[in-house]
Every structure is written in C-alpha cells, then in structure tokens.
Amino acid sequence: MISSIRCLTRDERGATLVEYGVLLMLVALAAIVAITVFGGAVSNMYTNASSDV
C-alpha cells in the first residue's frame, strides 16, 4: 500500500500539462489587464485618427 502511494507521488506525467495550463492562464490574465488598462486610450486614439481623416 505504501509503495503504491510513493509511486503516485513520483509520477510527473501530468506535471507538464499543469504547467502549460498555468502559463496559458498567466498569458490570458496579462492580456485582460492590458486591454483593461490601455483599451480606452487606444479607442480614443482611433477615434481621433478617424475624425482627422
């Protein structure tokens, strides 16, 4: 019983999938923060550019 539990704790096959999931979550969070922070400024920039044309 104890040897089977030790085997499960040493198994790292799913670790890569979890790491990719965490990395994807961090990229998505950074994108959401960037859009929230810079979204209004970029929208105003495009509005001013279109009214100048």
Number of helices: 2
Average pLDDT metric: 84
Main beta sheet: none
What proportion strand?
A: under 5%
**N-C termini distance:** 75 Å
Structural category: mainly alpha
Low-pLDDT residue intervals, each spanning 5 or more residues: none
Provide an overview of this structure.
The mean pLDDT is 84. It is built from two helices and no strands. The termini are far apart. 0% of the residues are buried. The protein has one domain (14-52). The chain has 53 residues and is mainly α.
Keyword list:
0% strand; rod-shaped; mainly alpha; 53 residues; single chain
Brief summary of the model shown:
The protein is mainly α and 53 residues long. It has helices at residues 2-10, 15-52.
List the helices and strands and how they pair.
Elements: H1 2-10, H2 15-52
